[in-house]
Amino acid sequence: MSRIAVMGSGSWGTAFSMVLSDAGNDVVLWGKDAEVADAINVQHENPQYHPGVLLPEAIRATLDVGEALHGADQVVLALPSHVFRENLTAWRDLLSADCLIVSLAKGIELGSRMRMSEVVAEVAEIPVDRVAVVSGPNLAREIVVRQPAAAVAACTSEANARRLQGACLTTYFRPYTNTDVIGVEIGGAVKNVIALANGIAVGMGLGENAQASLITRGLAEITRLGVALGADPMTFAGLAGVGDLVATCQSPLSRNRTFGEHLGRGQTVEETITVSRQTCEAVKSCRPILDLARAADVDMPITEQVVEVVWNGAAASSVLERLMSRVTRSESRS
After folding, report:
1. Would you state the pLDDT for residue 327?
2. Residue ranges per domain, the chain?
3. Among 3.50.30.40, 3.40.50.720, 3.40.1190.10, 3.40.630.30, what is the CATH number of 3-179?
4. Within the chain, which residues score under 70 in pLDDT?
5. Which of 95, 126, 127, 155 satisfies CB 3.0 to 4.6 Å to 132 for a cystine?
6. Residues identified as active-site
7. Whole-angstrom Cα distance, residue 95 to residue 83?
8. What confidence score (pLDDT) does residue 172 get?
9. d(CA 187, CA 176)
10. Is 266 left (phi over 0), alpha (psi -120 to 50) or beta?
11. pLDDT at position 150, please?
């Protein structure tokens, strides 16, 4: 049994806390909302994100960062990518000397173009083999009601990947290890952008042909970028690649797809942010992902069109038209 601090009591942080507790760990869940913390401790429920779902009584919630991090063998960061650096900078002196830091975020940092594991290693001043990530087709709402799911526990250290795997293995959550952290993180970050594009297609009333084409060409973009950055191409044929991509693009539970649907129906980005109320990683990460691709001389037309809509004010209805009018080429070379 490990003592694990989960930093972030949002949708996925709460669901992953359940997984860790069910796996037999001592779990402390940190969050900013006093009402949510009280509800978790007293009613064993997160009414903001998972109303009506009973959480394990063993999970303890706290507003005190020091209490959450004290003596933690593993620290799970269940935070949006754009607040990683700020929070970890404030917390790094409270981290145990040999703890494993685990990122659940699926994004790229704006400005630095760094993956989340790179941000963690830099800010916490620890070697990369003490930073791990969890990714895969893991829709929080399904996991919190204990529906079967699989994931990837990735770390450059095989021993630490297995350590994390053991900490989150339950009868309904099956993690596989991988040492290709680059591939796992790129798959997790870019699939959000493709899901937003697919949501636009859904919102416009387009059918399965258009969606399948977007998903497949999206996988090509993910793979091109990942391989250019040093990833194993086989990673993208697995859970952290095509598995996560399909789940995020196809499920109405996906925040990124839902965000795109609102845009496809004619809402503005600002209106959609107001309606959504939850973090949509694609909005924050699409621009640094495109910057990363351009720096690596990788063509990513779907990502480019999402950036045009989200950041440059282009009409969502024009995305498919611009993609369909691109110069044709061989599939094997594109």
Report:
1. 78
2. 3-179, 185-333
3. 3.40.50.720
4. 277-278, 333-334
5. 155
6. 191
7. 18
8. 98
9. 15
10. left
11. 98
